[in-house]
Structures are given as structure tokens and as C-alpha cells.
Specification:
9-stranded mixed beta sheet, two-stranded antiparallel ribbon, 9 helices, elongated, alpha/beta, about 25% strand
């Protein structure tokens, strides 16, 4: 089936992307009802980095990075390149040269549902990357695919222009139409967690703060002394 390169797709509002950039993936996912997580297989090549940006999606054939070259032209300031393949692939489809071209265009990072290489160089450049594998295996440029079409990673649909949030914990996608509500929900969750943190610093227990003692009782969980258990 022939591929397609979609130009100028709608994107989430910049103010909403910037608002989401202030929150971790755990907070953002919770604010969306524990949805949007792209899976435990996507791991960062660096530590201590959090980014948010609008997705430029790429669908490649395994072992072939032709469409990443095509996607670079479609990338701009504030974007994050998100790549998957038509079937599982761990080859190193992305490396330092791609990152150099993307830095020039203001791209904030890359999420690869495949392999990545040149990781030392990428860390030295400060170019954030998340991938399913690290591999020096090279690729060809032979098969057409698509850019800026809906793709699926970890069971989550990603549309071009959706917000990608990534940090040490993993990667979350926020549908662009939910960006504002999710940013507001993330702020509310941060306030709630700050209050809980202050309470815990004063010695309060989660059992009491969240009313969990009654839940334990309803579930039939009993307190017994060591002597009672051993008798």
C-alpha cells in the first residue's frame, strides 16, 4: 500500500504543551484517568530529563529508516519525533546525524518504538531519546511509509499534533483535544500531592489520610499480635 506524508496537521496549543511540560508522566497519566502510557519497553537513554512536545508521527518498515528522512522536513520548533514500524524491529533506525538535523529545526526529542544508536553522542549533544532497544545495527532506505498519520505504540493511539510527555519513568501521550483539561487536572493533582507530602512530613499515615482503615476492615483484614499469630 502506498504511503502518505501529511503536511501541516493541527497541533495542541503551545500554551497547553508548555503547561504539561511542568509535570511528570505519572502525574499526567493519573490526570487522564491512568491512560496514555506507551509501555514499559520504552526507556530513556539519559536520566534526569523531562520534555513535552507535539508529535510528528512516522510509520516505517522494519530495518528501513527512509521515512524518518522524510519526517525531518515536517518537524519544527517544539515537536517530538515519534517512530514505529509495521512489524517489530530493534535495529538502530535513529542516531546522531538525525538528531543533528532535528536540533537545527527545534525538535525537543525522539521516541523510537524500535532501536536507537549513537547513544553516547546523543547524550553528549543533550538530545533526549526514548527507545525500545539500543542497537548498532544499520538500516536501508528502500521502502515507502507514512508521516503524520495515526500510529499505535503500546496499545495507545498517537495522532500527529498530540502532546508527548516523557521523563525517566517513560512516555505518555495526551490527545491534543484533551491537552488543556489534562494540564488543569495535573495542576490539581500536584496541589493534592503537595498537601499529602506536607502531612506525611508531620507524621500522618496514608492509612488515616485516605481513610484506608475502614477499607481494610471491610475487606476482612485483621490486626493480630505476634503471640496471637504464633499460638
Amino acid at each position: 500500500m502506498p504511503g502518505v506524508i501529511v503536511t501541516n496537521p493541527p497541533k495542541a496549543e503551545k500554551k497547553d504543551v508548555e503547561a504539561l511540560s511542568g509535570y511528570g508522566t505519572a502525574t499526567v497519566g493519573e490526570a487522564m484517568g491512568r491512560t496514555g502510557f506507551l509501555g514499559t519497553h520504552l526507556r530513556p537513554i539519559q536520566q534526569g530529563v523531562r520534555v513535552a512536545g507535539t508529535a510528528v508521527t512516522v510509520l516505517c518498515w522494519p530495518g528501513d529508516n527512509l521515512m524518518i528522512h522524510a519526517a525531518v522536513e515536517q518537524c519544527g520548533e517544539g515537536d517530538i519525533l515519534v517512530v514505529t514500524t509495521t512489524s517489530p524491529c530493534t535495529d538502530g533506525l535513529f542516531g546522531e546525524l538525525f538528531a543533528t538535523a532535528l536540533v537545527h529545526r527545534g525538535v525537543r526529542g525522539v521516541v523510537m518504538n524500535t532501536g536507537i544508536r549513537d547513544t553516547a553522542e546523543l547524550r553528549a549533544m543533550g538530545f533526549p531519546a526514548w527507545s525500545a532497544a539500543v542497537s548498532p545495527q544499520g538500516t536501508v532506505k528502500a521502502t515507502g511509509g507514512s508521516v503524520n498519520v495515526p500510529i499505535v505504540i503500546g496499545g495507545q493511539m498517537i495522532h500527529p499534533g498530540d502532546v508527548i510527555v516523557a521523563d525517566d519513568d517513560g512516555v505518555v501521550v495526551v490527545p491534543r483535544e484533551r491537552a488543556r483539561d489534562t494540564a488543569e487536572g495535573s495542576e490539581a493533582r500536584e496541589r493534592k500531592e503537595a498537601a499529602a507530602r506536607a502531612a506525611f512530613l508531620e507524621g500522618e499515615l496514608g492509612l488515616d489520610r485516605y481513610g484506608l482503615r475502614d477499607k481494610l476492615k471491610k475487606l476482612g483484614v485483621e490486626y493480630r499480635t505476634y503471640e496471637e499469630v504464633e499460638s
